[in-house]
Amino acid sequence: MVRDPNGAADWKQQLTEAFEVLLDAPLGDFDPDARYATFFGGNMINEIGYDRDPGWFRPAALGGAEAVVWDFGESPLVFDAAASIFELHRPRDAFPAEFAADLENACFTPGLIRGADLAPLLDRHGVDLTGPEWADKRQVAYPVLASDGTLYDALRVALGLGHGPESLVDHEAEVSEEWEEALEAVEDPALRAHLGFYCTDGEDGLMYLQDDRTAGGLLVEEGCELIANWEEGQSQVEFAVVKLGDLLAGPRPRP
User: Which residues of the chain have pLDDT under 50?
Assistant: First the structure.
């Protein structure tokens, strides 16, 4: 096949090869039938209160019809509220009794529920969680970036990459010694520069911690497996690519 250097097939191949450098393994070594997700974490989202923003609790967002978009950094972060995990506090005395009972049954662990499972409960009981009276009783605990459920796409969104080279950003970050030589295997200099931001010492970019973190004890307890993890030096921002356990996977989104 003759490739168009600017075509989608060539771009996907370039990214696949770059991801394999970071993982030190072919993508084909990972379970193709599993569902993967990128969780966003760190202290910032809690400190500025975005984890309680009403936009997370819109019916269209929780049901998966609309994304939650946060204008953050160089480009907006696009979240999938349906796949994200929400925490609802003190359901027995804070919410209507019938809703609280159904909520308790729908949670996969006490107080925690996927957005896709929360949406029909809110509709059935006529509960609107977007109002300020609920602000201290609900939050998104584990936000998930929007992707198609494949490992390739989870890595793509974790690394701030779009569907073409126009998404590349030269952050001019200093790559850590540990990753400087490895990234030389990425042929395209613009892609190499973009990825360099995610392989720093954490001061001017993100540290690539591979799978050295648990990405939250809860996720591991629920059968998830950490594949790759990036963290800012002050723990303000984190991206964790995770192979989801059966309980949290749900159906794979349509392309």
Answer: 1-5, 254-255
